[in-house]
Design a protein that fits this description.
The chain is built from 13 helices and 13 strands. It is of the alpha+beta class.
Length: 406
């Protein structure tokens, strides 16, 4: 495929993917277009669908590397973070499940590995273009995945981590519930004036529909005080409708529009719809429940005006993993194994949790990860795909880019 053909296909796919959100949420689609113009790393974050189009025809060399796991589906470096789990423990883990689906485990590691390269370049690390400098971080991540996949699950916490990962856990633990409420609310309502750039009011009919859906979700014992729309959040998720609901108990629930997983572009049918009740919001909630030891008990799903939503608590103890803090090669090297461990434990836990309904044998995954050359193959892919992403971004950015018509 020549450059012109590739550029045309990339532009068409970006338009196609975002067209589904324009009618209901054009403002966030426009924000997304601007955000992914910023750098190849931001472009990569916002175009998981492009990655899975490429995975349809990109076959790894390692024997067994197509062995299946329950993927989070978008394990780039910015989708990790710290949260207080329902067992009252502050942990570091994957923090985004929108694309959760079953597919070859190597896709998860490939997406993460390429993001390490792009993040290093985004942070302008010395030697970020040199595989000799950055490949060791990819090797460390993949080796940690390999060495963890069949080990007893150990949550990543303050006492067994270091560096930027530990700092993220500590920062999350230091967040107080009142801080989140003060940020978004006043006198039992969302403060739309104070947070005018983040929150938006709903039309009366939509306000009533969202409030009714939340009331049905939480039951009569937890009254709904207010609801609003959340705008401008994330990168890849921009365009999807998001609502916040304030409960009488001081909890803020987030309802996020759920669409078909991007993984299905390359692996449709590998997760039986019956497992997630043929509901995309349920698929996301089930992925979270499969991947975490003590998941959010409020994680669930609902449908509002015919649109599927994933429901979960907006945790006051959540702290995103700040990629910009990996401002040196040693910091990247220190963090990389924890990322591999987090992915491995999520995959192993999901396989064990849903063993009866979804038989996934992790032994082929272990065998593939122990194949000679596996680490080098993953690093080679990461640098090759990072270069492809940079070309796609530059060509797409140079072409006229406007939000597609609905």
């Amino acid at each position: 495929m020549n450059t012109i053909q590739r550029t045309g296909l990339v532009a068409a796919e970006i338009d196609r993917h975002n067209a589904q959100f324009v009618a209901a949420n054009r403002g966030d689609v426009e924000r997304k277009i601007e955000k992914i113009k910023a750098s190849p790393f931001q472009f990569y974050r916002g175009t998981a669908h492009l990655f899975y189009h490429d995975m349809r025809t990109s076959t790894p060399d390692s024997t067994g590397a197509l062995a299946a796991a329950w993927l989070c589906g978008d394990a780039h470096i910015a989708n990790f973070g710290s949260v207080l789990d329902s067992g009252d423990k502050q942990v570091f883990a994957i923090g985004d499940f929108d694309e959760g689906y079953v597919g070859p485990f190597i896709w998860e590691l490939r997406r993460l590995a390429a993001s390490l390269v792009l993040a290093a370049r985004d942070n302008k690390l010395p030697g970020a273009d040199d595989p000799v400098v950055i490949a060791p971080a990819i090797h460390a991540m993949a080796a940690a995945y390999r060495d963890t996949i069949l080990q007893p699950y150990a949550q990543l916490a303050e006492d067994n981590t270091s560096g930027v990962v530990r700092d993220t856990i500590v920062a999350g633990a230091e967040n107080k519930p009142g801080k989140l409420l003060k940020k978004y609310t006043e006198a039992g309502r969302f403060n739309l004036q104070k947070k005018k750039d983040d929150l938006a009011p709903l039309q009366p009919a939509r306000h009533q529909a969202v409030a009714a859906a939340v009331a049905a979700h939480v039951g009569a014992s937890n009254r709904v005080l207010d609801v609003c729309q959340r705008v401008g959040a994330g990168v890849g998720s921009l365009g999807k409708l998001r609502y916040y609901a304030l409960l009488e108990t001081g909890v803020i629930l987030e309802l996020k529009q759920a669409t078909q997983s991007a993984v299905t572009i390359a692996a449709d049918g590998m997760l039986p719809p019956a497992i997630y009740q043929h509901h995309e919001g349920c698929r996301i909630a089930r992925t979270e429940w499969a991947h975490m030891v003590n998941p959010d008990p409020l994680s669930s799903y609902t449908t509002i005006e015919g649109v599927a939503f994933y429901v979960h608590e907006k945790s006051p103890r959540q702290e995103d993993f700040e990629v910009k803090d990996l401002d040196s090669v040693p910091k990247l090297m220190e963090a990389a194994p924890y990322l591999g461990r987090a992915v491995a434990t999520a995959h192993a836990l999901a396989a064990a949790t849903y063993r009866a309904a979804l038989p996934i044998d992790m032994a082929p995954v272990v065998d593939a990860a122990n194949t000679a050359g596996f680490l080098d193959e993953l690093a080679d892919f990461a640098f090759g795909y990072a270069a492809q992403t940079e070309r796609d971004w530059a060509a797409w950015k140079a072409a006229p880019a406007t939000p597609p018509a609905a």
